Amino acid sequence: MTAPPGTTTTEGTEDTESLGNPESPEGPEGSESAATDADRDELARQQTALLAALVAGGTVPAGFDAERIRIQTIALAAKRREGVLRALPELAEGLGERWPGAFMDWACTHPKPAEGGSRADAAAFTEYLRAQGTLPQSVEEALTPAPQHPLPRPGFMARVRAALGRRSTGWDDSDDTY
């Protein structure tokens, strides 16, 4: 019986036979050459399929327990839901009782955006609801930015004082710029 390279066997001897053997897949040089480009490509394909099943509603790849993948998919979507809740609580408030189910249904079939974290996830879900025509008006209003008021132009305070007939407003505004 051969033990893994560099380990001690039950007889107390160290297995050094395959350590320097380039033909051995267990040897230092053999370990690199044993994995072919085709093997790496197949592993990458399997990993991509597993990731798609976990976060984007993809088909569970052969060799994986579909029930465990389903449970993990739900757990990952629930974690995303909590992040979106922290990022945009108005969304949950606006959807009310529909919030958890609506987000979970969406999250199990839509991957999280690559950048932007929970805020980007909230924005993507909001856009989905908007496209479906189910985004509550209260959420739409909460997301609408307040109108921006321009800063006063230089000399504004001088014109205010002149209009009010006062010389000073009590502020040291000698430069009159903002």
Task: Give a quick set of tags describing it.
mainly alpha; single chain; 8 helices; 178 residues
Percent strand equals under 5%
The number of helical segments is 8
Q: Specify the structural class.
A: mainly alpha
Counting DSSP E segments of at least 2 residues, the number of strands comes to: 0
Helical content (DSSP H or I, runs of 4+): 40-55%
Largest sheet: none
Label the overall shape: elongated
* Mean pLDDT rating: 80
Distance between the amino and carboxyl termini? 84 Å
* SSE topology string: HHHHHHHH
| Low-confidence residue ranges | none
Structural Rg: 32 Å
Could you explain how this protein is built, in words?
With 178 residues, the protein is mainly α. The protein has a domain at 66-143. 54% of the residues lie in helices and 0% in strands. It contains 8 helices and no strands. Helix 3 (66-87) crosses helix 4 (89-95) and helix 4 packs antiparallel against helix 7. It starts with 27 loop residues before the first helix and ends in a 14-residue tail after the last helix. Residues 1-44 are annotated as: Disordered. It holds the Pfam family SCO6045_C. Residues 44-131 form the SCO6045-like C-terminal domain. It comes from Yinghuangia soli.
